[in-house]
Design brief:
The protein has a seven-stranded mixed sheet, with helices on both faces. Strands 7-6-8 form a three-stranded parallel sheet, sandwiched between helices. A two-stranded antiparallel sheet has the order 9-12. By secondary structure, the protein is α/β, with parallel strands linked by helices. The chain is globular. The chain contains twelve helices and twelve strands. The N and C termini lie far apart (about 40 Å).
């Protein structure tokens, strides 16, 4: 994989609203597994389309709320209603492949957004982050956090949903750093388990089970996103375990708040605005009937090399919140500094 710059300003968006045909439909997966889909991706797509000159009747943003059959129905209806481009975050590769097949049979372009469809021939394009690098960012942060640990730390790992190809890529990244430590005995792997559907409640339950089996002897947790990390932290705190390093991803408000109070080590900040603007630019180019000129990366979905735009993730921790998520306008001090979080040093200085 190689990285490519994302589109982060309206000046880079393609063309004007008068030059497209039909509609662009964005298919989001849910609002439960991560707050980003409704709180971030939706607003950035709306901003990108508006700044490019599209009217509200020239695009659709739909959410399947975790139901693959709903997403398939939404895709079919969008095409019936005139969609000529689909931007899709699949719920699983099987249903994603079915949506792609149906769209392709009707001459509709499909862009895999954030998640790659690994069944079938694949989408026409893919816009995401270098997801192996996302996982490696978590692994590197954990490695640094445990460098001064006295003795052999007991580590548990909670992977993302087993039907999500991104979860496989994230795991490839963090295991590339963690596995050598397990192999040489410098870290002890207590348990590793995938969390179905990235479900935060199940993540807490799984963490509770791991803690019980381990006699609460856990020193660190590699967790694949912020929502699940919140569940793990709740399980740890119920057993009186506070402040051990826990990783996360998505730089959600909850994740940043957990970092500020010392419950979470870091989160991987994926500049969702840049990702959404890059995907919107690509969608608009296809909607205009043009051939994208600057998509130079490729990712193999198991069958074909998919033309891709890949962005670079950034580790966010207590030292660089201002320089990352605040500076980019991804998060605001007002939404972070609420309740007891307002008493942290970060919020006191910000206010």
């Amino acid at each position: 994989m190689c990285a490519a710059a994302g589109i982060s300003s309206a000046s880079a968006l393609s063309g004007s609203a008068s030059t497209g045909e039909g509609k662009i439909a964005v298919l989001l997966p849910d609002s439960a597994t991560s707050a980003r889909w409704e709180n971030d991706d939706r607003r950035f797509f709306e901003e990108a389309f508006a700044e490019a000159g599209l009217s509200s009747d020239q695009y659709l943003i739909l959410n399947a709320e975790g139901d693959a059959s709903t997403m398939q129905t939404q895709a079919e209806q969008a095409i019936t209603d005139g969609a000529t481009v689909l931007l899709m975050v699949n719920l699983d590769s099987g249903s994603g492949a079915a949506i792609i097949d149906n769209a392709r049979s009707q001459g509709v372009n499909v862009i895999d957004y954030d998640r790659l469809t690994i069944e079938g021939p694949g989408a026409d394009y893919y816009v995401s982050f270098d997801n192996v690098a996302v996982g490696a960012t978590m692994g590197a942060a954990m490695e640094a956090a445990l460098a001064g640990f006295a003795g052999v730390p007991n580590v548990m790992i909670l992977d993302g949903g087993p039907t999500d190809n991104n979860a496989t890529l994230f795991a490839e990244g963090y295991m590339s750093i963690a596995q050598p430590h397990f192999d040489d005995g410098s870290w002890n792997l207590v348990a590793r388990q995938a969390v179905p559907d990235w479900d935060n409640v199940q993540a807490q339950t799984i963490a509770e089970q791991i803690l019980t089996a381990a006699g609460n002897d856990i020193d660190a947790a590699i967790v694949a996103n912020d929502g699940m990390a919140g569940g793990v932290i709740a399980a740890l705190q119920a057993q009186g375990i506070n402040g051990i390093p826990v990783t996360g991803q998505d730089a959600t408000v909850g994740g940043i708040q957990n970092i500020l109070v010392g419950d979470q080590l870091m989160s991987v900040y994926k500049a969702v605005k840049a990702e959404a603007f890059a995907a919107a630019d690509l969608a608009i180019t296809l909607w205009q009937g043009k051939e994208p000129a600057d998509v130079t990366a490729t990712v193999n979905n198991g069958t074909n090399d998919i033309p891709s735009v890949l962005l670079t993730p950034v580790a966010t921790d207590i030292t660089n919140i201002n320089e990352t998520v605040i500076a980019d306008g991804f998060r605001s001090v007002d939404e972070i500094c609420v309740g007891n979080i307002d008493e942290t040093a970060f919020c006191s200085e910000a206010n």
